[in-house]
Amino acid sequence: MFVPSLAWRDSRRMRRRLLLYVSAMALGVAALVAIRSFGENLETALATQARDVFGADLIVWNWGNFNDANEAFVDSLAEAHSGTVAREVSTPSMALFPQSGGTRLIQVRALDGDFPFYGQITTTPAEAADTYLDDGKALVDAALLLQYDAAIGDSIRIGTEQYQIAGQIDGITGQTGIEALVGPRVYVPLDRLDRELLRFGSRFTTSAYFRFDAPGTNADAILTAIEPQLEAMDLRGDSVGSAQGDWSDALGNLTRFLELVGFIALLLGGLGVASAVSVYVRQKADTVATLRCLGATAGQTLRIYTLQALVLGFIGAVLGAALGVAVQTLLPRVLGPFLPVTVETAFVWEPVLQGLGVGVVVALAFAMLPLLAVRRIPPLRALRADARARGIDLWRGLLILLLIAGIGAFAWMQTGGDLRAAIGFPAGVIVAFGVLALAAKLVQTLARRLVPKRAPYAWRQGLANLYRPGNQTLVLLLTLGLGTFLLMTLTVVQRSLLAPIALPDDGEGRPDVILFDIQADQREAVADLVREQGLPLIDEVPLIAMRLTAINGRETEDIRLDSTDERPDWALVREYRSTYRAHTEDSEEVLEGAMVPRVPADTAVIPVSVELDLANELGVGLGDRLTWRVAGRPMETEIASLRRVDWARVQPNFFVVFPEGPLDEAPQFGIITTRAGTPERSARLQRAAIERFPNISAVDVGLVLGLIEGVLGRVAFVLQFMALFSVGTGLVVLAGAVRIARLQRIAESVLLRTLGANRGQVRRILVAEYLFLGLLAALTGIGLALLGGWALATFVFETPFVLAWEWIAGTLVAVPALTIAIGLAGSRGLLSRPPLDVLRAEV
Amino acid sequence: MLVAERLTKTFASGNRTLTVLAEVSFAVDTGATCAIVGPSGSGKTTLLGLCAGLDRPTSGTVWLAGADLNALDEDARAALRAQHVGFIFQSFRLIPTLTALENVMVPLELQGERGAHDRAATLLDRVGLGDRLDHYPTQLSGGEQQRVAIARAFIHRPAILFADEPTGNLDDDTSHRIEDLLFELNREAGTALIVVTHDLELAARCERTIRLRGGRVVEEMGDSHWEMGAEASAA
Q: Is A1 on the interface with B (CB under 8 A)?
């Protein structure tokens, strides 16, 4: 009974102060609980809504048209299982709104049948979804109507077909906000689709959707059974079960990744706890020594304070869990655009208990680091203030190792058993903490050595506070610095990703309109059209579809079936769209060998240029042979050069470039790029092109860049939302540190005032200290972020590193300002305390 | 009750060895009172720490309540203190987060004894603080705090009480009242009392006095039957 009752009594006057510190844990726990709860609810939503999202029980689909055998197979499958079939052709195409003259690349879904069988297309008017097929009309995305100032009842032209708009699409079960943003959809009846859109070179899919009404029909089992037939016919199949599994995996990865980001906040909170407890232990040293004199054992004293830490950790975790449950309701708004299902934010016990458990364990583990010192406080200290334990505490070293192992284990579990993550995550955390800790040490050394003797007293004193005994420089630099680091890294990386694809400046002459799907017989006429509009013909690029059939004489099919060969399927089976030309583009650079500009048409082995990453994936280099099938004809090539391609440029880029000559007469289609300069001229060109050549499509580069920016912005928002937990933790730790050091501060300020300092001077000392701390945390965080951002940009995203100057400047102002504000708020009342209070107080 | 044999304590200071206490021997009987006096740095507090088992001697032995302290580990020494030893410190050493009553209860609670509350309240009443039971140390004057400390020292009826400058932080009047209280309770409980002090008046109230200088016993006064160590007597 002694330990619990003394633990309770002894904590009496420290509870409020400690609670603030323990609440540092709360944000980290909140992040974990919120995301885990959301993940659970997401799983539930996926399980209950998968069929609605999928829209059918089974899908069989293919790139291009179904041939007769495919059609027969679809029919027989429906018949065998008493199913209903709906067919769909989906293709990107240009849409023209005749009333406004506006054009835009859209995704056409031409349907025949009652698809979606499950879920629904929500339209205005509501009945339009049921009637448009029979009436031969179209359904158009609401945003698209708004964008082109079109109304229900107006017309839309796709290819040569003109449709009346029966209704606007307000929502489609399972379509994510991001999808709607990137490819606005238009639904039309299949029998009215302009078949010209499906000419050679178009990338379209044909799908058959099945609905099985017979009780006990298992679509997953059917899919497994027909897998060999699908393979033989080069068809693909998906069932609602397999799709659900895929979504579940993808979204599971997303939530687990976000949990890791949240875990960083928890670790920061742990550091806050360690720091608070370390100050607490220092303040309690005399009490411990007295208790030891009175006969308490080392174990008893340790248990007293461990129990306190445990209870406070639990309270912090409960606070965090409650906050997490509340935050969970915000997550659908943050993550909504990425989700195919509507997530109900119901209360789920399991994540709350997990969050509580992880929170308490982390709080206790970090609290134990300083608490272990309690065992080593000698009773002699009651007689002699300078009595202290000597030697190294092995238990502490062991605890640190255990903590690192625990962090690794958490990362391992979060990433589904990825050993690299299990080592990399704690290593990254240690490096980041280490750099920040080093920075803190450096700052203290510099502050000690370089304080200008002539500086005003308040500034000298403020700087000296950074290294005096009992300072909190290390923990504040760690928490504030790491929070700053996380936010800044995200910003810097986002900037670097967006910079190379930013809208071309007028002076650079880069293309801003790309016309594609141009048939060989249309090329001259389209080029003329561009010139007629007074626009430059920047590039005419021929495209030839081909498949890789052999590498150095070994069939790709053979390689694919060889389980020991790790070359990826996508590179072996994809349809390559290659070009031929005599020059390199400014988005590419030849690293090895040389481009061969031209060879005779009948060259037996054609020298080609291959993109570096593809060559690596295929395991080939200079001199290796690649065999292609072009329009049914084999073509032997040899790698004459390797190129690096900047794929981020919105312009036609290629894996494989042929020399001029051999492909000149091959069946081909083309791309023409031009520079319109203004949105008006761009719209005029697109309108003219689509009117004369309904099958060709146009990409407005500005629009695409806007979309990319939009998508990246949303991704960044999710990450920044998570990083905010770390920043918040940093601020709570700061508030706690200010609070816990308050007694010492009060004593100092009163002493200074007794010696003749006025309140203004005392306040200036505080401002100086927090200014330095904030500034240093910001500088260290920014420095780390620039380093991390540069490394990510250079090695992961392979894009030039770009500085976000205004963010750097903003951070340099905001972090110190916040630090000063919290520091002064926490020191409120400190200046008005009468000296007598302090003389009597426990300081 | 307490036997110290040839106690020596040295510290390494840089590359030389500092001898704080050299071959000190003495014994104190049950119920006896003994003062240890000497100038600052003479080794008084070190000797007290060794006798109470708060520190280990470099050489020599301490027998406390029949137990050889050298043979006990830290926890066993703590258990011995909990049972047989009381302490009074110059700076009172009350636990600031506990009330007067709770401070006095600690030694009994450590041993898991029942009735701690009533016994502590009675004892506090005895030292004149019956109306201050729920006050925190910061709400008490120095003299009151030391009275709480005295109550805490006697609550578990220790066989021996160590007092380190018990009046060092108090004014004359208060000192005298505290001394009276200390000796009164000591007599009533039959506790052996070892007092380390600068105050010769206080020392004179003890039956015996040991004077230390430079870590050695240089003088003994009173009706002692204790023996001085060989080195000390040589000095």
A: yes
Residue A712 burial (C-beta neighbours within 10 Å; 0-12, 13-18, 19+):
middle
What integer pLDDT is reported at residue A843 of this predicted model? 38
The answer to whether residues A172 and A227 belong to one domain is no
Nearest to A133 by CA among A54, A187, A209: A187
CA distance B101 to chain A (A): 12
Residues A666 and A568 in one domain: yes
- pLDDT value of position A215: 82
Q: Which residues of A touch B112 (CB under 8 A)?
A: 1-2
* Residues from chain B contacting residue A300 (CB–CB below 8 Å): 110
Beta strands in A484-586 (DSSP E): 513-519, 537-551, 554-555, 575-580
Judged against a pLDDT cut of 90, whether residue A541 lies above it is answered with: no
Residue B4 has pLDDT above 90, yes or no: yes
Chain centroid to CA B92 = 12
pLDDT above 70 (res B231): no
Residue type, position A196, single letter = E
For residues A812-824, average pLDDT? 88
Domain boundary pick from A164, A181, A213: A213
State how far the alpha carbon of A612 is from the alpha carbons of A197, A609, A622, A643, in Å. 34, 9, 10, 5
Task: Tell whether A200 and A231 lie within a shared domain.
Answer: no
Strand A102-112 relative to strand A155-158: parallel, antiparallel, unpaired? unpaired
Cβ–Cβ < 8 Å for B214, B18:
no
DSSP secondary structure string for all residues of A103-127: EEEEEEEEEESS--SSS-EEEESTT
Task: Compute the distance between CA of residue A730 and CA of residue A267 in angstroms, rounded to an integer.
Answer: 11
Q: Cβ B95–A290 below 8 Å, yes or no?
A: yes
Residue B229 pLDDT? 40
Report yes or no: A2 at the B interface, CB cutoff 8 Å.
yes
Q: Which residue has the tokens 């031409």?
A: A110
Are A841 and B138 a contacting pair at CB < 8 A?
A: yes
Enter the tokens of residue A455: 């500086």
User: Which chain A residue lies closest to B155 (C-alpha atoms)?
Assistant: A294
For residue A340, the model assigns a pLDDT of: 72
Is residue B59 scored above 50 in pLDDT? yes
Domain chopping of chain B, boundaries? 2-234
Mean pLDDT in residue range B209-224? 83
Q: Residue B222 — left, alpha, or beta (φ > 0 → left; ψ -120 to 50 → alpha)?
A: left
Could you name the CATH architecture of B2-234? 3-Layer(aba) Sandwich (3.40)
- Over the stretch A311-353, which tens digit does the pLDDT of each residue have? 888 988 999 999 988 888 888 777 777 777 777 778 888 889 9
Cβ-contact B39, B20 below 8 angstroms: no
Q: Is A300 on the interface with B (CB under 8 A)?
A: yes
Helix (H, G, I), strand (E, B) or coil at A290: helix
Confidence category of residue A650, pLDDT binned at 50, 70, 90: low
Cα B216 to its chain centre, rounded Å, is: 19
- Residue B121: pLDDT above 70? yes
Calculate how close chain A gets to B106, using CA atoms only, in Å. Answer: 8
